[in-house]
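Entry type: protein chain
Record version: 2
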Amino acid sequence: MTRRPSRLVRVLFSALAAGTLLSTAACSDDGGTDGTRVSGITASQVAGKRQTPSPTATLSTNGARTALITEADIEDDWTQVKDTEAENWHDSLLIGTVDVSDFLTAKAQASDCRRLLDSLFDDDLLGRPSGASELRGFEEGDSRLLYQVASYDRTDPQDSLNWVATLPEKCDQFTVTDGNEQRTVQVVEIPLPEVGDARQGLRVTVQGSAGGDDATLTLDVAAVRVGDDAITVTAGGLDGDENDSVKQAVRQGTQRLKDVLAGKSPAASPN
């Protein structure tokens, strides 16, 4: 089997720096009352086909930066890091190969799972932004939270959301191999607040070893579309999930983006 870098989400930066060898794929829980969709229904169906929001302004770089969340927008004791630090979280790579023997339709499904890992690492879960794009990073202990606001005015983020919605089935569980080490990756769906025009949430858990001890990485990922713009949140670490913070970021961040697109100043962040 060919070894190739299977890019790991930046959230693993601190763990990798400490010698942790874990890989990422997405996972999520069963949907709830505030969930994104019923199993088997695409993200576009949740949004009632493709809806165009009332704001029609083109998102500028300044607007994208204004729409970014702050420490006050998320729960717990998150601390904002320098932009350059957040941008470089993805510099630590994980070498690994998705085991195609785990899949019924091996090539197609393995390709989707590799694409998921790569897109999480590259901060382009919904594809490369075609317009303005801004990032902001936060840390709390060994956990990391990365928040992005981006414009996809020349592409269709809904197509990417529909693809993300298929991953809990396509990549529900698979193996990543790195030399003699194997890691089990699981992808499940998680519910998100019903905000924006469409949304999709995943949880990625990776079971492997760190420093010779068993370790599990839990990573929550959320994407919300507002017209041709979108926010994405990636958060987690070895200490457990960050689902509450992700949901709070989704609620506050979506409203901030809508305010910016409507030509308003975002409301003050809650204390």
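Comment: The first strand starts at residue 20 and ends at 21.
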